[in-house]
Amino acid sequence: MKASEMLGKKMLLDGNTAVALAGFAARVQASPNYCITPSTGAVEKLIEFLGESGSQTRWMYNEHAAMEACVGAALLGLRVMTATSSHGLTLMSESMHSAAKERASVVLAVANRSLGLPWNIWPDFQDSLSQRDTGWIQLYCEDVQEVFDTVLQAFKITETVKIPAMVCYEGFILSHLSEIIDIPSQEAIDGFLPPVNTLLPLNPDDPYVFSGSSRTPVHSQRLFEAMRSAPKIIKQVMVAFNKSFGRNYRLVMPYKIQPKQELILVAAGITASIAKEAVDLYGDRVGLLKLRLFRPFPSTALRYWLSKGKKIAVFDRSMSYGAKGIFAQEIESAMYNSNIPIFNYIRGMGGKDIRPEHIVEDIEDALKSDNPRMIRWRS
Length: 379
What we know:
Helix content is 41%, strand content 19%.
C-alpha cells in the first residue's frame, strides 16, 4: 500500500514503518541514509515512501557521511530525517556534535540496540545514552503509536528551537512489533506541522561561513542557552499535538501516583508498559513515572512528581560503568536535597527479557530494603 493511502486510517504497523510513514506525512524533503540492524526497515520504508513525493533520498557510504549530509540539507532549509542504531549511531558521533552546534534541524530515529563485542543485536539504551552530551534532544517511546506521534512532534520541536532531536524506540521490540495505530489525515498533520522555516538557509549564490576553526565558545554557549529554554517549547508542542489529535503527552507521564506513596517507579520505553502491570497489583501503594524526555533533562517535572513518594526505584536499561545506571544518576542529581531513598535496578541489558514478575520482585525489594546505595544488577 502506498504511504498516501495509509493516512487518515487505523493501520497495523510496526515501529520502523511508523517512523517512515511519519516522515512521509511530515513532508520530509531530504533523507541521507546508511542501513544498520534493526533500523534497516525504517530506512528502506522511508526511501520507498519518500519516492512517492519526489523527495531527495541518498545512500551514503557510512553513517558518519549520512549525518554530515543531513546537516548540510538542514542548513539548506530542507526538512530532514534519517534512522540508525547502535554502532551506526556511535559512528555518527563526531557529526552529532557538529549538528547540535550548527543548530541543524535534523530528526534521527534510533532503534536502540546494544553496543560492543561480543556482537548483540538486541536492545538496551546504551547507544543513545552514550550520546547524551552531544547536545541533541532525546525522546523515548513506549509503543508504536507513540513512535509515530513523537516523530511528528520532533519535527515541530527541532524546527522551533533549532536543536536536532532523536526519537528512541527499542530495536527488535518496538521496531518490529506491530500494533494498530491511529494515523491522522494529511490535512490534519499539515495543520499541526507547517512547512519548515529555516532562519538563514544556505545559498550557493550568497555564501556564508558558519563554523571553521575558532576558539570562540559562542556555539556551545548558544546551544546551552537554547537547551535551557527548550522544555517550555517542548511542552507547548505536546499541548498543540493534543489539541490537534487528542493524544496527551508530557515530558514525564505519571501513572497512579498518589501523595505520600510508599514507592514510585521510574522507567522509560517498553519497561514503562511492563511496569504498569506490576503497579496495578499494589493498589495505591506504588505509582509509576514514565521518563519520556531525557535531554534536556526535565528536572522540575521529575521533582514535582517524585517528591510525592517515600521511596523511588529507578529502572535502567543502561549503565555508566564505574558509577550506576544513567537514569538513576540524573534523577539522584535532580533530587539531591529531597532525602528520599533512590534504588537503582539494572534490567534488560543486551536485550534480556523484562517481565512483570521481575518488576514485582524489585518492588518488593525496594519496599523492604533500607540500603538504596547498592546497585541491583538484574540483567
